[in-house]
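Recall the central idea of this unit: under ordinary conditions, the amino acid sequence of a chain determines the structure it adopts. In this exercise we apply that idea directly, starting from the sequence alone.
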Amino acid sequence: MGCASSVAVSKQSDVLTDLVNKSIQTLRKELAESQKVVNARIAKLEEPPSPELANRVEKIEKMLEEEEDDESEELEIIVEDDDEEEEEEEEEEPPPDRRLHFLNFSW
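Accordingly, the structure predicted from this sequence is:
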């Protein structure tokens, strides 16, 4: 009986080993296919952009630079306006009242 069970265990072991080996082969094939797809995508990403796309990118970059220049000019104008407003506010303030209020009440 011990011999028969050892043969059965050996057969089960062989079957499991075959299954594991087949699974490993299948996974290796799938990995190789996935790697091909990834490499193709990487190659496509590394291609230089079309001239039309490069021109569009340049135009957009120029527009952004112009907008930044305009914004900086606007900021300078706003800062200058703020300085002028502060000067006007200082001029509009009445001189401080120097009377002694505590002497101004009636008995």
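The two ends are 128 Å apart (CA to CA).
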